[in-house]
Amino acid sequence: MKETRDKYDCIVIGGGPAGLMAGIAASECGAKTLLIDKGEKLGRKLAISGGGRCNVTNRSSIDDLIKHIPGNGRFLYGAFAQFSNEDIIGFFKKLGIELKEEDHGRMFPVNNEAQSVVDALITRFRKLSGNIIINSPVKKVRYQGECATGIELRDGRVIDAKRIVIAVGGKSVPATGSTGDGYAWARAAGHTITDLFPTEVPLVSDDIVIRKRLLQGLSLQNVAVSVLNPKGKPIVTHRMDMIFTHFGLSGPAILRCSQFVVKAMKKYQLNSCTISIDALPDIQLEPLFQEILAKAKSGAKRTAKNEFKHFLPERYLVYLLAQAKIEVDEPCANVPNEKWRNFAEGIKHFHIAVSGTLPIEKAFVTGGGVSVKEVNPKTMASKFVSNLYFCGEILDIHGYTGGYNITAALVTGRIAGMNAGNED
Q1: How far apart are CA 88 and CA 199, in angstroms?
Q2: DSSP 3-state of 193
Q3: Which H or E element spans position 91?
Q4: Which of 144, 153, 227, 247 could join 157 via S-S bond, C-beta 3.0 to 4.6 A?
Q5: Which residues of 307-317 are buried (b: 16+ CB within 10 A; e: fewer)?
Q6: What is the helix (H) or strand (E) element at residue 116, kind and residue range?
């Protein structure tokens, strides 16, 4: 095999947000840096994030950021102490990308164009004399003893480097190049890859309401969605919007609950898991029941559907009335209290069985990855092999959508690049 003897101070594998940031950070430290990617374009996943607008980060407190990264978020405390979400905002401002704050602290570029974020990162890297190679899949990372020494490409080329940063992402959204290539390279260095699973992903259900498409296409706003354990107790609750689909459930609340469904089914060895929907989370069950009784009494001659039409979306109201065995055109005066209680119960605790999630390829985020126990949280360096660093979604770190995952990628990329770029 003919080997090229190109030599770099730092090679970054992967051109996503973590890789681009790592390349910039290494170059800013004066390192001769190569950024290599197997695809035709860099930043493909970043360019489609946030509906094409790119939710760059989230302007929350560090503690709140950690809370919204339930997958090993605490590992990031050391990284945030060096480069925070506010630093991300300042970093992009220097690149000419002004960010604006929207609901829940989400930060977007003022021009609403994700590609402008990608272009700014690439331009910055090039200005720092960084070298970019695309359409070049990496076959493996080369190790000599307990030291990373370079990479071997699938076409046979070998490129040497003093330090290697692996930033190739997880297995979600494979069309953007995230196909799990880096896990084998990490294992070859002795690292543990924790179980991979889909997060921020729709849920699949064979419940009758889904199977018969009784509520397909119905959106519910600001509802409290809970994942229940086998004893019927909530494991987690998220209050956001959701939608009934032809295959199950989706929408922001469902996406946030999805990882807890996966974990519950594994922990309790379940074939299905129960989701509970509270359509009116601002009122407790008993006060709601009393309010329903009062309305039914004051509107005794009106039909159940007309009297309660402002309570819920019409399709959901009709369905819950039917579940409580209340005819929609039945005068309220004719409905016994027991049925009104059942109606209140349905509003507060509508249960639907889910059998799992869509596959990891359909997920927004990959759960699992390189064990953070084996990575230095202050440098992103491997604890097993010298001159090897990890950043981004290849690590066992996963957060909710809303800027949290991109924040984790940018911050870990910055820390990995800074340390990989420093002279020995």
Answers
A1: 24
A2: strand
A3: helix 85-94
A4: 153
A5: bbeebbeeebb
A6: helix 114-127
Contact (CB, 8 A) for 363 and 199: yes
Summarize the confidence of residues 229-252 as an average pLDDT: 97
**How many Å from the N-terminal Cα to the C-terminal Cα in the chain?**
31
User: Which residues, including other chains, have CB under 8 Å from residue 334's CB and lie 6 or more apart?
Assistant: none
* Angstrom distance (rounded) from CA 132 to CA 2: 22
Residue 5's pLDDT band, with cuts at 50, 70 and 90, is: low
**Contact assessment for residue 392 and residue 412, using Cβ atoms and an 8 Å cutoff:** yes
Identity of residue 413: G
What value does the CA radius of gyration of the chain take, rounded to a whole number of Å? 25
Residue type, 153: L
Which residue from 3, 18, 36, 13 is spatially nearest to 131, judged by alpha carbons? 36
pTM: 0.93
pLDDT at 417 over 90: yes
**Identity at 172, one-letter amino acid code:** S
The bridge status of strand 273-278 relative to strand 219-228 is antiparallel
DSSP 271: S
CA 406, CA 276: separation in Å to the nearest integer? 30
DSSP 84: -
The predicted pLDDT at position 6 comes to 79
114-127 vs 17-28: helix crossing angle, rounded to 10:
30
Q: Which residues pair with 377 in a beta bridge?
A: none
| DSSP assignment letter at 82 | T
How far, in Å, CA of 383 to CA of 374, rounded?
5
**Could you tell me the CA-to-CA distances from 89 to 55, 99, 119, 158 in Å, in that order?**
12, 7, 16, 37
pLDDT > 90: what percent of the chain?
95
pLDDT in tens, 162-211: 999 999 999 998 888 889 999 999 999 999 999 999 999 999 999 999 99
| Burial class of residue 61 in the structure, from the number of CB atoms within 10 Å of its CB (0-12 exposed, 13-18 middle, 19+ buried) | exposed
pLDDT digits (tens, 9 = 90+) for 283-325: 999 999 999 999 999 999 999 999 999 999 999 999 999 999 9
What is the per-residue pLDDT for 419? 98
Please give the DSSP secondary-structure letter assigned to residue 217: T
> Is the separation of the CB atoms in 301 and 329 below 8 Å?
no
